[in-house]
Amino acid sequence: MTPRVGVVVPAAGRGERLGGGVPKALRQLAGRPMLVHTVAALTAAELVSQIVVAAPPTLVEVVGRLLGPDVKVLPGGAERVDSVRGALRVLDDDIRVVLVHDAARPLTPPSLVDAVASAVLAGAPAVIPVLPLADTVKEIDADGMVVRTPPRDGLRAVQTPQGFRREVIEAAYARHEDDGVPVTDDAGLAERLGVPVTTVPGADEAFKVTRPADLVFAEAMLARRLAESSRGPAS
Ligand code: C5P
Hints:
By secondary structure, this protein is of the alpha/beta class. The chain has a single domain, classed as Alpha-Beta Complex (Spore Coat Polysaccharide Biosynthesis Protein SpsA, Chain A). The protein has 7 helices and 12 strands. Strands 1, 4, 5, 6, 7, 10, 11 and 12 form an 8-stranded mixed β-sheet that branches. A two-stranded antiparallel ribbon has the order 2-3. A two-stranded antiparallel ribbon has the order 8-9. The relative contact order is 0.17. The chain binds cytidine-5'-monophosphate. Cytidine-5'-monophosphate binds next to helix 3. Residues 10-13, 24-25, 54, 76-80, 83, 102-104, 208, 210 line the site of cytidine-5'-monophosphate (C5P).
């Protein structure tokens, strides 16, 4: 039997860079909260069997009602790592593969979710979706002066879902609980254990909604999807 795949969705961020006065995951996009789009994409993926959402602590009941009985909802923590750690603890015992996916990536194609899950099921301990960079990246010092320009060919932008064998993500979070060294993604925690991290091609649509212009972009993409689906498949 194929091992079961669980997805942990940190959705407890305040979304201060986005503004708007409501937690980012509940910002409306094409008439539905962002988190509803994100969970719909996960539900549409073939390989996902459990979804756990870490919600803003005061909104657990609201989010639970929005997402329905098939999604487990629990209060998130102060930082993203705290939200993920809490959600990992409530996954079903028989989940063997864990994906961690930002609520703030509402247009992620279900095929990307399945591609990451498949790569872990095929034996990779940790898998991340990546895209080449459009912009050149500079390292700068505290005064804003350029220190270095790393060659762009060897750099990638990293998206979610990031996938792990369950024992890998649990060991990574246990290590982080001990030493608290800051990292900006879940694979960064696994790298610190010496675990090899495999990459798969990311998707433009899996971008993270961070700033107000991202909402405009997301609305436009959703409108295009709707227009395409109402036209139906080309005959
Ligand atoms: O702030 P940023 O966009 O990097 O957050 C990435 C994801 O982590 C978002 O989906 C956000 O809701 C989530 N998060 C969380 N708990 C926090 C902070 C962020 O679940 N305390």
